[in-house]
């Protein structure tokens, strides 16, 4: 999360005066509503709902969903993914031992 916070800025969405500009999250495809919390990526300036982008990046996708520019170093994403696999395997192992 610290790396995500460093590479993006959060904001509260406010409707713009130009009605022809419809802003939406490219991950969930929903329009931003007044007061929604979003994240703007520092390097490419693409904007998403905060929770959508966090889920995207935490599921071992270290790139922007639109332009694929690197947001989180691949080393961090790979390490996080390995930790998730180990955690899941430990849970499966515990369940198997409990069922024996």
Automatic annotation (TrEMBL):
Residues 25-68 form the RING-type domain. SMART domains: RING, RINGv. The keyword Nuclease does not apply. Keywords: Metal-binding, Zinc, Zinc-finger. InterPro entries: Znf_RING, Znf_RING-CH, Znf_RING/FYVE/PHD. It holds the Pfam family zf-RING_2. The keyword Cell inner membrane does not apply. Coiled coil: none annotated. GO terms for molecular function: zinc ion binding. This is Brassinosteroid-responsive RING protein 1. The lineage of its organism: Eukaryota, Viridiplantae, Streptophyta, Embryophyta, Tracheophyta.
